[in-house]
Amino acid sequence: MNQPLAGFAPAPVTARMENHGSHMLKVAMQTGNDLLARVGSMVAYEGFIQYEPNPPAVRQIARDWMTGEGAPLMKCSGDGLLYLADYGADVVVINLNGDGISVNATNLLAFDAGLTWGVERVKGLAKFAGQGLWNTRISGQGWVALTSRGTPIVVDCGGGEDETYVDPDALVAWSPNLKVKGKRSFKAQSLIGRGSGEAYQMAFSGQGIVVVQPSEDSTDRLRFRG
């Protein structure tokens, strides 16, 4: 019975955060190195790990999530192995080395509690109400895990003059130093977006990356996790 399942056994720990397959995150928990994770994302754990939903650090920022762009978080602390997932979405692990990333809150799975973070308005999109005007910006030294509806692509903007255009519903994250602006175009529905023919894109320029998922369907993003 055990032999056919041996290939699915947990691998030895090699990093604070790593993938177990493409749809699950494994976190090596240690006392004093807490984690902030999406509420409802825990699927299994080993050892002694405690959970605190809506901790004080999150409550101070929660008022900025009244727009509906928020990601309810819980604090995880203790020693052991913690496994997280989000409805079978692909998991992307990033090790921040003193830099930062701006993340769509619905794609944020977990991050080290010691990182600097906050909710910020996306500049350059004020006239495009409802098109993801708020993002979670995370910076410092530590680990971040994102989710993607399918295997994502990471586009290097390269610092050239050409802009990179992304459908807001397919956007996962980007380098916070990139310049962002909104663009409206009128295209056939079958070519761009899924609207009535009037398509919105986000234009990025500068030096940095943009993470894009192969999905424009945002209906599951609006589901509340208890």
From TrEMBL:
<dbReference type="Pfam" id="PF01987">
    <property type="entry name" value="AIM24"/>
</dbReference>
<dbReference type="InterPro" id="IPR002838">
    <property type="entry name" value="AIM24"/>
</dbReference>
<dbReference type="InterPro" id="IPR036983">
    <property type="entry name" value="AIM24_sf"/>
</dbReference>
<dbReference type="InterPro" id="IPR016031">
    <property type="entry name" value="Trp_RNA-bd_attenuator-like_dom"/>
</dbReference>
<protein>
    <submittedName>
        <fullName>AIM24 family protein</fullName>
    </submittedName>
</protein>
